[in-house]
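ping. complex inputs:
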Amino acid sequence: MSLYELKIQNLRKMYSRRIIFSGVTIHFSKPGVYGIAGTNGSGKSTLVKIIAGLLIPSSGTITHILNGKNLPEDQSINLVGFSSPYLNFYEEFSALENMKMLTGIRGLVPDEDYLNKLFDHFHLADRKNDPVKAYSSGMKQRLRLIFAFFHNPRLVILDEPVSNLDNSGKEQIYRLVNQKQTESIILIASNDDSDLALCEQVTNIEEFKETQ
Amino acid sequence: MIWKVFLYFFILAVSIMGIAFPIVENPIHWNEYPYIPALGENAKIIFFHVPTAWLASIAFLMSAYFGIKYLKNKTLVDDIKSYTAAQLGLVFCVLATITGAVWANYTWGKPWSWDPRQTSIFALMLIYGAYFALRSAIEDSEKKAVLSAVYSLIAFVTVPFFVFIIPKMVNSLHPGSAGDPSPIGFKMNPNMKIEFFLSLTAFSILFYWLWSIGYRSLILKEKNNNLL
Amino acid sequence: MTRQIIAVFKKDLLSEIRTRYAINSLVMFVVITISVILFSVGNESVPADLTGGLFWVVVFFTAMSGLSRVFVTEEERGTTLTLRLLAKPAVIYLGKLLFNNVLIFSMNIVIAILYSAFFDTFVIESKEIFIIAFILGNLGIASASTVLAAIIAKASSKGTLYPVLSFPILLPLILTLINLSKSCISGTSFEESQVSLLILFCYNVMMIAASLLLFDFIWKD
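pong. complex structure:
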């Protein structure tokens, strides 16, 4: 198994004059579950969006290191899996079609066995051919989690992983996180105590608030 | 202060020289302009028409330049500079169109004939108009800055077509088009040339002054609102 | 990368086939614009060289009604974020450009057929040149309107602003096309029209190059 590390250096994000956070420096050097905590509106989502490459930081860098080599930005895209409550899918397509199509856009060939396993794991197997339009919010959240794990990313970012999920859904995702923690870096941004209990190390975003 | 007074007298002198100096058949004195066939007295508007058209284009160039700068550095001051340049550009664009139409009315017989040059200045006005419409349709100031910079750069791609290619292709009455070299070179006599370039300089300084006042006051306004 | 671009294109095509979001309004727009022209013409026959110009008027307005869809739907459904996770900006742009090209080509072929059926004076002398101009013109409209669609998707008054932004950008293209169509109708040689064709070609190259350079800024927040 190749070695993957994630280095966050001196990250700072501002909206107009307001500093969301600054001086965020974290080094994730081995697989495991890591947490990012903080109250509502503290910038957790902003931070994970920047790590996922969805937002540009005001300053600072994110470095993906594979086998000791720094990866350029456009090659790191498929190393990252991302799930978040504000992630949407194409409602006119079924869950299965969505996953296959999106993997195609990544330039990867979908591994159908693994995909079926994931659908089974999240108890969506019998609904996978229904259009996403017909999904409940909990089912959509399960689909987002499948989307985050499906292409075997080395860095899985889960923003509020258990939002909208019932107890069985929570149990499913915790089990998957436990399975995957030996091969991937899993970053959980959450306020939920049971989520953070999974993490071997929790960073509180509020630590990076005041420094100007 | 001093150079505001200087600018005032400079513009005043240029305007008086441009309007009041007589046009004669054989200019001998320093204050006489030559008679240019088919133009006659109308030739004098060149001292006002060309500088405004020139500044309308320069403003567009500046707006695009500060747009690039904004995209590189993401400092809102550059966006404000770009925006101010575009505002002034629109004003000068309208002035160039009006002076051009007045001139065309007396020389070509009617104010508007979709001459390629008139089409270009019309397109430039539309671009400015679209630029402001786009800005007013976006709330977030950073997004506004990015998108309007991108738009002005895409609009910039069309400039060579309007300035160089289409006027050369289609027959135009405007000087500087196909088969007609620039009139500045050979039809003007030395003192007309001097007045022409003085006027160009005076209006350019005026433009710069307006621009720097414009963007500095906008920066102050933003600072007041704690946005910058 | 080519595979990814085709995947984006296929996704849009399948989605269009399922929802018929753009096609329906495009077809209606073609019918409406042509019939408005027919009403205003009445029983008189339109001079031949005027039909060439009017043809591009129909094309322009139809394009404005449907080509912004590629990015506007993504923004409306909130799937922009999902796409950003999947591929670099250039892939998305080129996939969308391909889709808009297919859309505008199929639409303009329909327009051309309807148009020649309704206007008997729309007879083209130099067919080959007109076909080259038609192809280059379609490519040009697609390339300019795709990047503008990306801009417009982020603004609040999407529908009305799109033609406002597009018209000045498309103007050099449309002027050249109108001139070229006029001379194609009255008959022209390849030598005479090669400058115009070259302009159309340059417009395409410059527009796509500028779009590729600038798309990153539009696409990323």
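Chain C has one domain: 2-219.
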